[in-house]
DNA sequence: GTGAAAGCGCTAACAA
DNA sequence: TTGTTAGCGCTTTCAC
């Protein structure tokens, strides 16, 4: 189907040129923003284009330029968990915002299962994408390497599990953020501090855990418990139960993301522990719900929307660059003081 | 850039044909799945295509077929709220799943602000989209009508605020679901039942409110309070505060979505009301968090992923159809009994 | 069953 | 500054 009432064919550059009384080439120049065009022609073309409400045919353009003018936003996760996390939507929003106005399409894809992974890789290698934003990869996923080998520009959300030559990425200062959370807890006079980690096949979880330990070490203290979660509310609940069972005396918890912190809050309440009086709590993300729970969650904010935008922007500039290792972009975090610590 | 190591040009149909020793036309026929091709040629072509890892150039194909092989998923909402709601991600996932394997791209867009709306409409009218999935529109948005007028197939998520001729949509049985929630509360012996509504410029909120009233009417009862929320946790909190202030004696609440129910749960706890003993609570959505809060939320499940898939499927079939009013698809809801009622 | 040839609408190289 | 020309890679008649 053509998106147009039957009978009226889509206006082409040809028809715009005809109406403006110039050649197709000149019309093309004007629409492409070339400056080497006479004032008269320019105006005539612009008027004609508006008149016909002309829209460039991207297929024809792509064929010539060998660019697709589209960027993929790819979620490398078969599980539901990541999509349920607002983090994902905010990254997407940021990427979209950065691309809006650039005349670049955002193609969305989820890699659920091997079949889809293969289809996607095939598609990407076919030159149908000017770049790929890769999000929520686990472990040592070979996809970035493979795309790079096929000369497809890639930007990763978060550092790769293992360093990959030539791979660009945008990350938050996870270790620094975690450390600042611990320091806050220490400032508040807490002595028995535990942590709930994220899934340890993800670099973000690893870095937050390391930052947590670094913060304690710096004060000559030791963790009073570590329980592994999975970045979900339910995982946070389980981990908190573990922590309490192992050491009923803990007086502070750093959860590696907000969802797990919410789970921990529930469990603490169920065990009759008051937050923050008995147990102080700090999360990570500053997700949209953090301000709405009660008491409101003290957390480490990472600029997720800005990170999404940065990834898209990175991709746009990478297009022009030659070989050489791209510089990772590490965005600062910020402690948001609210009611739980 | 071409997504391919410099020097090695992307294989074309031409090169596949050459390697297979047939004409480009025959190669094309095989790859398009035509049956009028000899067994020998077919095998030769398939082998050659695999050998070269050939990928059809979509731009060239689009140019010929006048189809874009892409569908847009469009969020008509400038506000953050909708994106933070897991509902959105699940719809997206469903739509993506239905399109996977169909060789159709999912183009993602958010209509934040007038500039973006215009750009999008222009783009869509340009015939760059085979169809549009429209999500989270407010009030009497003219966009569906305008797209339809431009002969762009549209499927709406949820019924339109006002009926629009020829507009396809997929909705949940909001009124029925709300009604079943009320009936549960009545079954539990509750007498003083209030509701927290969604934003009343959205049909889903309206229909749930109406279903709530219908359920009460059927038993000859009247609502003990109505407070308007906005589908957010914070809005649910505010509404619950209102409800308690207006009538401290209420013994049940139906919240028009889960996020507001979460807010209500917090406020009830803060006021020393036990859930469900003192006040029973039913939400709507069965969002991923509903099972994780404590007590776990009793709620009305709507099949969101299936709805997203249905919208995409609808779009694919609409392509072929002629004029005539499409039949709306109303998906059933289901009461999920958990701890709050 | 297969091939030759004609474009789809655009951009880019070259002339003028 | 402008126009002419030559394709980009594909699908699709139309012959054979």
What brief labels describe this structure?
homodimer; about 350 residues; alpha/beta; 434 Repressor (Amino-terminal Domain); Rossmann fold; 6-stranded parallel β-sheet; 6-stranded mixed β-sheet; about 45% helix; elongated; DNA-binding
Outline of this structure?
The structure is a homodimer of 341-residue chains. With 341 residues, the first copy, chain A, is α/β, with parallel strands linked by helices.
Fold topology:
The structure is a homodimer of 341-residue chains.
Chain A: H1 13-20, H2 24-32, H3 39-52, H4 58-65, E1 70-75, H5 81-84, H6 86-99, E2 105-110, H7 114-125, E3 131-135, H8 143-149, E4 154-157, E5 168-172, H9 174-187, E6 193-197, H10 203-218, E7 226-228, H11 233-246, E8 252-255, H12 258-270, E9 280-285, E10 298-301, H13 304-318, E11 329-331, E12 334-336
Parallel strand pairs in A: 1-2, 1-3, 3-4, 4-5, 5-11, 6-7, 6-8, 8-9, 9-10
Antiparallel strand pairs in A: 10-12
Chain A binds a DNA duplex (16 and 16 nucleotides) through residues 10, 12-14, 22-26, 28-29, 32, 36-38, 41, 56-66.
Main beta-sheet strand count, sense and barrel state of chain A? 6 strands, parallel
Helicity range of the residues of chain A?
A: 40-55%
Provide the spatial order of strands within the biggest beta sheet of chain A. Answer: 2-1-3-4-5-11
Pairing-aware structural class of the strands and helices of chain A? Answer: alpha/beta
| Biggest interchain interface, per-side counts | A-B, 75 and 74 residues
Mean pLDDT rating of chain A: 92
Q: CATH topology of the largest domain in chain A, anyone?
A: Rossmann fold
Shape by Cα distribution of chain A: elongated
Share of β-strand residues of chain A: 15-25%
Task: Give the low-pLDDT segments of chain A.
Answer: 1-6
Keywords (chains A, B): DNA-binding, Transcription, Transcription regulation
InterPro entries (chains A, B): HTH_LacI, LacI/GalR-like_sensor, Lambda_DNA-bd_dom_sf, Peripla_BP_I
Protein name (chains A, B): LacI family DNA-binding transcriptional regulator
GO molecular function, one term (chains A, B): DNA binding
């Amino acid at each position: 189907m053509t998106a147009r009432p039957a009978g009226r064919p889509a206006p082409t550059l040809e028809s715009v040129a005809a109406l403006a009384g110039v050649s197709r080439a000149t019309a093309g120049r004007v629409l492409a923003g070339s400056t080497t065009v006479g004032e008269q022609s320019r105006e005539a073309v612009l008027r004609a284009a508006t008149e016909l409400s002309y829209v460039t045919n991207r297929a024809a353009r792509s064929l010539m330029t060998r660019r697709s003018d589209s960027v993929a936003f790819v979620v490398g996760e078969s599980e539901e968990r990541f999509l349920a996390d607002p983090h994902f939507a905010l990254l997407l929003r940021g990427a979209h915002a950065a691309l809006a106005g650039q005349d670049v399409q955002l193609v969305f894809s989820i890699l659920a299962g091997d079949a889809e992974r293969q289809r996607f890789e095939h598609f990407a290698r076919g030159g149908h994408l000017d770049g790929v934003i890769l999000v929520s990869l686990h472990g040592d996923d070979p996809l970035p390497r493979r795309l790079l080998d096929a000369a497809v520009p890639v930007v990763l959300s978060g550092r790769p599990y293992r360093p990959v030559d030539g791979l660009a990425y945008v990350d938050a200062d996870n270790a620094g953020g975690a450390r600042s959370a611990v320091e806050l807890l220490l400032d508040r006079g807490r002595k028995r501090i535990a942590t709930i980690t994220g899934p340890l096949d993800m670099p973000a979880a690893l870095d937050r855990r390391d930052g947590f330990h670094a913060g304690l070490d710096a004060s000559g203290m030791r963790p009073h418990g570590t329980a592994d979660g999975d970045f979900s509310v339910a995982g946070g609940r389980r981990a908190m139960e573990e922590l309490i069972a192992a050491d009923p005396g803990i007086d502070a918890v750093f959860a590696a993301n907000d969802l797990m912190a919410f789970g921990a809050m529930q469990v603490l309440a169920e065990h009759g522990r008051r937050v923050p009086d008995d147990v102080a709590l700090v999360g990570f993300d500053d997700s949209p719900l953090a301000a709405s729970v009660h008491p409101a969650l003290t957390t480490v904010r990472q600029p997720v929307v800005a990170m999404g935008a940065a990834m898209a922007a990175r991709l746009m500039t990478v297009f022009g660059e030659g070989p050489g290792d791209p510089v990772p972009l590490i965005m600062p975090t910020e402690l948001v003081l609210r009611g739980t610590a």
